[in-house]
Write a structure and sequence with these properties.
single chain, 940 residues, mainly beta, 22-stranded antiparallel β-barrel, five-stranded mixed β-sheet, 12 helices, 48% strand, globular
Length: 940
């Protein structure tokens, strides 16, 4: 892991992608020491004194000047600049403890959002702070898109890689990311940068400027930042993606030597073409027929591995080429801070951050997989097909089709974040400090899902007949009711109906497209107000030194109100149907943290410190909950320090989880006690009765810095998380089976009985899952002088031994599962090893760096049994090489350049079986390819 000033050495003069290299190489560096241990050098003792580029203050605690026993990773402003990072999403690839999380756009989740996710336990279990204050959610789901925080304004980034709810509050289950902005900058600085991939995409212009000036006791800082990434919306732009691979059903499954599924190239739809094809379950006379230009009837040639959705080869359509690599993002951010030192002991401040992000992606094209019903009297039906229906006494049949005339669904987001703060801080008495602050966040999240299809209108238009009065096509509904009342036709669907011809590619008229097409939208307004006060100092001393204390209280109020369009209200669109949301909550909490020195300069104990913390929190939605932390630092000799922390942490349900609209639908539920299957009412959505998740976490490790090998340092940290009452969703049958078969009594309250008949199942979000993570972080670094500069070699690695989710009585381990997170369940997966090996030379006026990044392979899917479900469930590892250089043109101007993925290493095949199957669906491997960056900076 990364740590403190050591980060200066590792990241001092490097390209953007900076952490995760060959585990084997990283281990070899670590074993240079007699200790033989890697380090996750994350504490104050491990500062890299050879490169005093900037002062990094690492906390991991509320107490100033204390080295916390919980590991902390820190990256400074100069490290981010040296690597050319202009988007915090890039940091996730650089730190093995962080799992890359970004929605490329082909789902209903926030488009382009990148969330910090420590240990793969989920982004909602990582607390994000800016300037030590909680950062508000940037979308109505409760996520925090870190892209809205510009890297150009960051002074340092601190990551607490262990449970920290007692010190920092709810959501700090797997850790805390604390982002500090440069609020005391003096002078003027700026930068311009441009980068792109070797495929002439991912063009990324960026620019920033900042000014700071002191006017006596008054200090003003203002900055602006611009970033753009034109993304890539088609994987066909990459040679590795042109095979059209997908996971397909194996029709020969069940015979010796055959698996249930296969991975095959040239994935095509088995029941869909651009012009329409008869459904595979059609009567024999209609089977394997498709519609060519003008509705001509042609044979439909099937490929191999023919299943209900895919086949390999044949005449079916394919959307494989359109699978997204990344969305388009444009962002502008402004920051200003005014501080005033009223006296030597009291200061006031006011700051503001404004960010606007515009994000665009496309989805798939509308598809109907053999489920469009065509009546025998359809106005556009080819006579050859009508004759077959008549001869076989069939009134209708079904076809499948790709709606190419409609075009791809589009997804666009306008995300505006405003964050205003004011406060004061000061000193009093003998070394006591205090601060008080108020913070107001306002977020507007506006999303449009364009080129959407109105399902009701589509069905009305498809069901068209010949009007006997005119001899022209007319919608059956309009023929039967030419003047419907508003009550009969509240949305004007019948009155505006346009007949739709589905026979042949390009047969759908523009008038029909205008009739069925439209845009779904979600307009969300979010508010968060936070009021906090803190005090710290030393109330008394022990025989070993001063006891330090920090205490504080906080009040937080949050609300979300999201409105949607009328069609979405009735879930009437083909793709995304955003739902309205209206809810609020408030939180009152108080905490105290203590550091008590127990031994100093004693036999076998250079020092021993005890760290205690506790917090009481009262949620308006779920009541009171307590969290605590017990930690210790023990230094038996000067060269070794041992550290350990045990904590109880919590995550309370967010507003979306509590108050999202409940949908009602009927589905078949089998009562396992009576073996009777009945159509049963089910409810899905938010649940206002959710309780906070509870977690027990432990971290323990050692820091080694030998006097006999100057410039070498290493550390090792073990971590363990066990989460109970995790918020999850189960379907109705899972809840019934869990209660009545597995005797999971906590699920029984979701079932309503009418006698011995199940009348309703509340399949909303519930506290019914458990999750755990175990592993360790290691790091080793060695630096030495050479000629007029310094060489630094550094290896770091993270190993995940266990990442389990237990839901409905079934435990699945996702450690070492690297396939698409969309098929992996609640936690997704994570490689067992991620590591890096770097070497840097910093001389007078120039610097060079190289980095090896390693991402372990593993399983494609946690649920597959190799040889039974799929022939090969393995995914190979990848190693990437990044290089960078910079040169000082003058004392005030420097030019830098970088190449990431120097050898253009292609990602391993991790296919999925969605509508537009991706060749490389895993987020852990580089899908962009070789990328070049060049830029210039000035500072006066």
């Amino acid at each position: 892991m990364l740590h403190r000033n050591d980060i200066l050495t590792m990241y001092g003069f490097r390209s953007r992608q900076r952490a995760a290299a060959v585990a084997l190489c990283a281990l070899s560096v670590g074993f240079l020491s007699a200790a033989g241990a890697f380090a996750q050098d994350k504490d104050a003792e491990m500062a890299a004194e050879p490169l005093q580029l900037t002062e990094i203050i690492v906390t991991g605690t509320r107490i100033t000047g204390f080295t916390a026993p919980t590991p902390v990773t820190s990256v400074g402003q100069q490290e981010l600049e040296a690597r050319g990072i202009r988007n915090l999403a890039d940091v996730m690839f650089d730190m093995p403890s962080l799992k890359p999380v970004q929605n490329t756009g082909q789902s209903s989740q926030p488009i382009g959002a990148s969330n910090f996710d420590l240990r793969g336990l989920g982004p909602n279990r990582t607390l994000v702070l800016v300037d030590g204050r909680r950062f508000a959610a940037t979308d109505p789901t409760g996520g925090i898109d870190i892209n809205v925080i510009p890297a150009a304004l960051i002074k340092r980034l601190e990551i607490v890689t262990g449970g920290a709810s007692a010190a920092y509050g709810s959501d700090a289950v797997s850790g805390v990311v604390n982002i500090f902005l440069d609020d005391r900058f003096e002078g003027a600085k700026g930068s311009v940068q441009y980068s792109q991939s070797k495929y002439d995409d991912h063009h990324k212009p960026a620019a920033s400027v900042a000014v700071g000036k002191a006017f006596g006791r008054l200090h003003l800082v203002a900055a602006g930042d611009y970033f753009k990434d034109d993304g890539q919306l088609a994987q066909a732009s990459r040679p590795w993606a042109r095979g059209g691979y997908a996971i397909m059903t194996n029709p020969a499954a069940g015979t010796p030597g055959q698996t249930r599924q296969v991975i095959a190239p040239d994935a095509r739809f088995s029941q869909m073409t651009l012009g329409g094809v008869t459904a595979s379950n059609s009567i024999a006379a209609l089977r394997n027929l498709q519609f060519g230009p003008g509705g001509t009837v042609l044979p439909f040639n099937r490929g191999t591995y023919v299943g209900s959705t895919y086949m390999s080869g044949g005449d079916g359509a394919s959307l494989s080429d359109t699978s997204n690599i990344s969305p388009e993002i444009e962002r502008g951010t402004g920051f200003a801070r005014l501080s005033f030192d009223a006296t030597e002991d009291v200061s006031f401040f006011a700051d503001a951050l404004y960010s606007r992000a515009d994000i665009f992606s496309d989805g798939t094209t509308a598809t109907d997989n053999g489920n469009i019903t065509i009546q025998r009297d359809n106005a556009f039906l080819p006579s050859q097909i009508r004759d077959i229906l008549v001869a076989n006494n069939q009134s209708n049949f079904r076809i499948g089709r790709v709606g190419a005339e409609e075009g791809a669904f589009t997804n666009s987001v306008e995300n505006t974040i405003q964050r205003y703060g004011l406060g004061a801080n000061g000193r009093f008495g003998d070394g006591w400090r205090w601060d008080a602050s108020a913070q107001f966040s306002r977020v507007r999240y506006y999303r449009e899902d364009g080129n959407n299809r109105n399902n009701n209108r589509f069905n009305l238009g498809v069901d068209s007949v010949i009007n006997p009065a005119t001899g022209q096509p007319i919608c059956r509904a309009l023929l039967n009711n030419p003047n419907p009342t508003a009550a009969q036709d509240p949305y004007g669907d019948i009155r505006a109906c346009v007949p739709i011809n589905l026979f042949g590619a390009g047969s759908v008229s523009q008038a029909a497209l205008d009739y069925i097409g439209g845009t779904a939208f979600l307009d969300s307004r979010q508010k968060q107000d936070v009021y906090a006060v803190n005090v710290e100092g030393s109330p008394f001393a022990t025989w070993a030194g001063d006891v330090s204390m920090a205490a504080g209280a906080e009040y937080r109020r949050e609300s979300v109100r999201a409105t949607n369009d009328d069609v979405s209200k009735r879930s009437g669109w083909k793709t995304v149907n955003p739902q309205a949301l209206d809810g609020s909550l408030n939180v009152k909490e108080a905490y105290m943290e203590l550091v008590a020195p127990l031994l100093v300069d004693a036999p076998l104990a250079r020092s021993l410190e005890l760290n205690l913390a506790g917090r009481v929190t009262d949620y308006s939605t779920s009541g009171r909950v307590e969290t605590w932390k017990v930690g210790a630092n023990y230094q038996p000799i000067d060269e070794v320090r041992l550290r350990a922390t045990l904590s109880r942490d919590i995550r309370a349900a967010n507003i979306n989880e509590l108050f999202s609209g409940q949908n009602q639908f009927f589905n078949t539920i089998t009562n396992p006690e009576t073996n009777v299957a009945l159509t049963t009412l089910q409810l899905t959505g938010g649940n206002p009765d959710l309780r906070p998740e509870r977690s027990k976490s432990f971290t323990g490790g050692a820091v080694f810095q030998p006097d006999w090998l100057p410039g070498f340092r290493a550390s090792f940290d073990y971590f363990s998380f066990n989460i109970r009452d995790a918020i999850t969703s189960l379907n109705g049958q899972q809840i019934v089976d869990g209660c009545l078969v597995r005797k999971q009594t906590d699920l029984c309250g979701a079932i309503t009985f009418d006698g011995n008949v199940i009348s309703r199942v509340q399949a909303t979000l519930i506290n019914a899952a458990r999750s755990s993570a175990k592993g360790f972080d290691m790091e080793a670094m060695y630096g030495f002088d050479m000629a007029d500069g310094r060489i630094t070699v550094r290896g770091l690695a993270t190993y995940i031994d266990e990442l389990t989710v237990t839901s409905n009585g079934v435990t699945t381990d996702y450690a070492g599962v690297v396939g698409s997170t969309g098929t992996l369940g609640p936690a997704g997966g994570i490689p067992k090893w991620r590591a890096s090996l770097s070497a840097d030379y910093a001389g007078s006026g120039f610097a060079l760096g190289v980095l090896l990044r390693y991402v372990d392979g593993g399983k494609l899917n946690a649920g597959y049994v190799e040889g039974v479900d799929i022939p090969d469930n393995s995914v190979p590892s990848r190693t990437y090489v990044d290089i960078n250089a910079k040169i000082d043109v003058t004392d005030a101007v420097e030019i830098y350049g970088a190449i990431d993925n120097l050898f253009n290493v292609a990602p391993p095949m991790t296919p999925n079986a969605v509508t537009a199957p991706s060749y490389a669906s895993s987020a852990f491997y580089d899908r962009i390819g070789r990328a070049y960056a060049i830029g210039a900076r000035f500072r006066f």
